[in-house]
Structure formats: structure tokens, C-alpha cells
IS1182 family transposase
Amino acid sequence: MKRFIQGEHRTQSTLLPEVLDDYVTEENPVRVVDVFIDNLDLQALGFEGVTPAVTGRPSYHPVVLLKLYVYGYLNRIQSSRRLEREAQRNIELMWLTGRLTPDFKTIANFRKDNGTSIRNVCRQFVALCQKLDLFAESLVTIDGSKFKAVNNRDKNFTKGKVEHRMKEIESSINQYLTELDTADRHEPEIKQARTERLQQKIVKLQTQMKQLATIKEQLDEAPDHQLSQTDPDARSMRTRGSGIVGYNVQTAVDTKHHLIVAHEVTTDGNDRDQLCNMATQARDAMGVEQLTAIGDRGYYKNTEILACDQANIKAIVAKSVTSTATAEGRFGKDDFIYDAANDVYRCPADQLLTRRTSYQERGEMQHRYWTSGCKNCPLKSQCTPGSERRVTRWENEAVLDDMQRRLDHFPQAMRIRRETVEHTFGTIKFWMGTQHFLMRTLKHVATEMSLHVLAYNMKRMIKILGIIPLMQAMVK
């Protein structure tokens, strides 16, 4: 091995003891974790065990375990068992924890028992970002993404799944009964062997049928008629590819530095009811009075947009084209221009549609407009197959009109939304790898997601400010 760089012999002793601090450079990200957590008031954040018990075996201070977890999520080590191993061999973790090596059960229990406090730490870091003026001036983008839960798809049941599976089992049982009749016509030895095998299969299927009948009864009692056996809070949700059993994670992301301002884990697979909630959380986290929130078509819901307007939040959401008339090539509602001063619609044939009636639909007041001059209109074939074209207007539709005008004057809004919020989900899912959430139930999954968001925001801050300036900002 001559003419190569030589390493030290394993049995070589040193005159002076090694110092761990020499192995951790001044610009190592682990120092950011150390400074950030050391400057937190863990008792005010609600952590258990900050004040030690007078008697009993001494416990690990929450600072140590919190540092362990934040470091783990920064470095894609989410498992408590892997963190236990890393604490015994990773020099950075030895430096961070003072060579303490808690076992995996202690590490796992800390995350399980301090969920609310860990979520508060994530909010505290967002507050630090706000203090450093890193957010754009009152502009965020909102989106949701489905994350896989511990629950397997075969352990999730809906009425449709159960009925389909029961039909399959019934068909299989009938097939095996037919094969039993066929086996009776063979020689005794063959008949006995086939009969025993088929009867075992039939008994097994009948047992599954009874289990499915019990599950069907439980589904009738469930509020959303869905049952997950491994993680009771996980829900079957639609995705672009195929369905997934998991959670819908909502985020509001700042457009300046792509920092996650607010997030929430929900069991609702639809985004339509999440706009005002997430926008309000983002406004409060950013400490502003007015906010503009951009969402995709999945967030378009009139009552949510109205709630945003009442909360001093300007929503910009693209509208989905659901008009039957437009789909069939006729004039859509957008072709009818509303005159607010006279409360009439002007149609493409320059006729006025006046308000004729009003009614309640799902608790909302709707107004109907039409004109009696449609029969002789030369554009009738392009407008309606009925006797007259009727246009419905919601009592608060002026809010939707204002939002459409904002979108028309801000055509790059959807591009900004796509470039801002979608990559945050891609980054976090890449860090998670192919695995799912490690914890079960909504409460604990929310804790796990907060650690992912904290790690994401911390990496973004390191990239934006640098390690030493960030540490200096934390201690001010």
C-alpha cells in the first residue's frame, strides 16, 4: 500500500483525549438545531418532564430528546429504532446529546406523549421566520396532498368494497360446490382428497363471509360509513393514479422564500372546505391584517370564498367549468353580463334578463333571471334547447365576481401557485421515501407532520440565511 494516503492503525493510542467539538465544524447544520432548541422555553411550550421528579430514576431532559428528533427528521431518520442506533455511532448526535444514548422506547414515547408541544415548536419556528421578515407581503399559496397511512388498503372497508368482496366470496363458494359434485364421480381415493381440500376452502370462505357481515354492521354505525382496522382515523381517498388510504395534508406556503407558513392534517379527502381555514391560519401566523390566498380549482366553493372575504382575505381560485351548456357547445353563464346597477343580465343577443323569482337552496338564496323574448331569438339554438334561457345568481355572487376580476388582472397567479406550493410536497415526500407515516391516528400523524414541516423550514432557512447568520438571529 505504498504511495497511498495512509490511515491510522486501529490500535494506535493518542496522548491527549479527543474533543467531540473538533469533529463538528462551525458551519455544521447540527449547530442550528442545538442553538434553536436551547433558546426555547420548553415548559411554556407544554413539554412533560421539564421539572424532574424528586424521587425515582432520573429521566432524560426533553431538550435531549427533542434535539434527537429534529436532527433525525433533518437527516431522514424518522424511526425511533434507527435514532437509537445513530445515537450510539453518529458523532454529530454524540455532540448534540452529550453522548447520551436513550433506548428506542424512550425516544418513541417522547414523540407520542408530547404531540401538542412539538406542534408548538413548529409554530415557534414559523414565528422566528416572521420576526426575520422572511415572508412575502401578504401572499400565500394553498394546496393539499395525500399521504399514505400505516393502514393497508385491504384493511380499509367501505360499503362498496364489502359488497363487492361478498359477491366474490359467494361466487367462489358456488364454484367449489360445483367442484364437489364433480369430485363425487371420481374414484374413492381421488374423491376423498378433493372433497377434504374443497371443504376446507369453503369453510374458510364462510368464515370470511361472517367477518364481512360484522364489518358491514360496523360500517352502518360509522359516521362516514368507512372503517380502517389498523389506523382507525385513516381514510380512503382519491388520487390521480389510484386510491390511497391515508391523510390529506394541507399547507399554506409563502411565495417569497417557499416557507411553510401553516399546515394541517385532515381526514377529509376533499379540499373544498379547507380554503378559509388554511388562509386564516396563514394570516395569523404571518401577523398581517390582509392576505391574498391562491388556490387551485379543488378549492372553489362559494361559501368558502365568502368566508375568506368576510375575514379580510382575498381569495384567488380558478373556477372549474361544470356547465352542461358549455360542454354541449352552447353559451355558458360567463357569456351573460350582469348589470349590478339595474339587477339584470345582458345576453349575447343583447336582450335583458330580469329577475323573476327567488328561492332557498341548501340554505342559500338564489335568484332566477330570464326573458320572454327567447322564442324568436336568432341565437336560440346556440343558447338553450328549452323555451327560454334561465340564469341563476347566488345572493352573494358579487364576491365571486370580484375574485374573478382579481384573477383576470393577475394571470400569473396559477403559475406562481404551482411553482410555490407543489415542490414543498415533493420535497417532503422525497425525504420520507416510499414509506408511509410511522404513527397511527390523526393526533399522532399531525405530530409527525409537524416534525417534517419543521425540518423543511429549517433547511430552507439555512439555505436562505446561512448557518452562522441564522444562529445569530436565533439568540437575539
